[in-house]
Design a protein that fits this description.
The structure holds two protein chains of two kinds. By secondary structure, chain A is mainly alpha-helical. Helices cover 86% and strands 0% of the residues of chain A. Chain A has four helices and no strands. By secondary structure, chain B is an alpha/beta fold. Chain B has one domain: Spore Coat Polysaccharide Biosynthesis Protein SpsA, Chain A (Alpha-Beta Complex). In chain B, 45% of the residues lie in helices and 16% in strands. Chain B has nine helices and seven strands. A seven-stranded mixed β-sheet of chain B has the order 3-2-1-4-6-5-7, with helices on both faces. In chain B, strand 1, helix 1 and strand 2 form a beta-alpha-beta unit. The termini of chain B are far apart. The chains are: A mainly alpha, B alpha/beta.
């Protein structure tokens, strides 16, 4: 099997990030769920870089897409769009909580002034 | 409901309106409205301090959250304090205080729960073309999803009775609350009427209102809330 440059760089980088993640988990900067999810992601990326053709052909066959490159791109875009929607939902929830908090503070201060 | 028993608190959502605040409050007082509340939405130009000096009730958000957020704070305050009538008016001097009497007249004669002041019921008003266009788009969108047909869904001059105060809850922080309030009122089977009002456009008030970009974001927010909430 011919070894390409990215098949060395990507696994090494993934290993580096996994070590960093483990350190952060040990220092309780991230919880177990975040640690495992991130570990799975970086491991998956490393595996994909080692067998890119085999995995992309498999994905193309599963989704019925002729080109394996398109299959990976479409899958990646789908995952990104899903994540963007999730992020947008989180941002909206944060905005709502911020507004609720600002309102609570405003009304509490108004009540205090009335009592004075 | 006896007309004499209308005791109305006038709430003005305000963000950086120090240049015109004194005039607006003086005008309200000259029209007999002495129960005034400034809903200060995180202003940084001394609006809060000026409002206190002018002797009105001030409720202040610590940070800017938007006109809709300020309006909902006003509604929540009205609920807590048992206010029977709550009027909203813009703090930028665009509205004419005298028109609040028209809203009261309409509420009294029609026995309705929410009156919206409409700039487009009078034909002789000089409204900038850009404003007409934005309002036409906003009205079109609101009327598409609402049961009623409103001539000025984006008007900030409104009068709510106690039933409307208790029923209406706003979730949109920005200018989309104007349409949201109408839809909320419909959902709670409140009686809604419009009353003709005048408007005073100055370079200052035009700079404070919605522009195309804000209008676009407002529309997106409104649609998102409609579809996903």
């Amino acid at each position: 099997m011919e070894i390409r440059v990215f098949q060395i760089v990507v696994p090494l980088l993934s290993l580096l990030f996994a070590v960093g993640l483990t350190t952060r988990y040990r220092k309780s900067r991230i919880n177990l769920r975040e640690y495992l999810f991130s570990l799975i992601f970086w491991s998956g990326l490393a595996v994909f870089s080692l067998f890119p053709d085999e995995i992309s052909v498999f994905i193309a066959r599963v989704f019925g897409i002729a080109s394996n490159v398109n299959a990976v791109i479409f899958l990646g875009m789908g995952i990104m769009i899903y994540l963007i929607f999730m992020l947008y939902g989180e941002v909206r929830e944060n905005r709502r909580q911020l507004t609720d908090l600002a309102r609570k503070i405003a009304l509490r201060d108004a009540e205090k002034e009335t009592e004075e | 409901m006896s007309k004499k028993k209308f005791v109305t608190w006038v709430c003005l959502p305000a963000y950086n309106e120090a240049p015109v605040l004194q005039e607006v409050i003086s005008e309200l007082r000259s029209e007999g409205f002495h129960k005034i509340c400034i809903l200060n939405d995180g202003s940084t130009d001394g609006t809060e301090e000026l409002a206190r000096q002018l002797g009105v009730l001030v409720v202040s958000h610590p940070i800017n959250r938007g006109a809709g957020a300020a309006a909902m704070t006003g509604i929540e305050l009205a609920r807590r304090r048992g206010w029977q009538h709550l009027a909203f008016m813009d703090a930028d001097g665009q509205h004419i205080a005298h028109d609040l009497h028209s809203l009261h007249e309409q509420m009294y004669t029609q026995q309705c729960d929410l009156v919206v002041g409409s700039r487009f019921l009078k034909t002789n008003l000089c409204i900038p073309r850009s404003r007409r266009l934005l309002n036409n788009i906003a009205n079109g969108m609101t009327n598409l999803f609402a049961r009623g047909s409103y001539s000025d869904s984006q008007s900030g001059m409104r009068l709510l009775n106690r039933k409307a105060i208790e029923a209406i809850s706003l979730k949109i922080d920005g200018f989309g609350f104007c349409s949201e309030m109408l839809m909320e009122a419909e959902n709670h089977q409140l009686a809604i009427e419009e009353a003709a009002i005048s408007v005073r456009y100055t370079a200052y008030s035009i700079s404070k209102g919605q522009d195309l970009q804000i209008g676009f974001t407002t529309a997106l927010n409104f649609l998102w809330n409609l579809l996903f909430r």
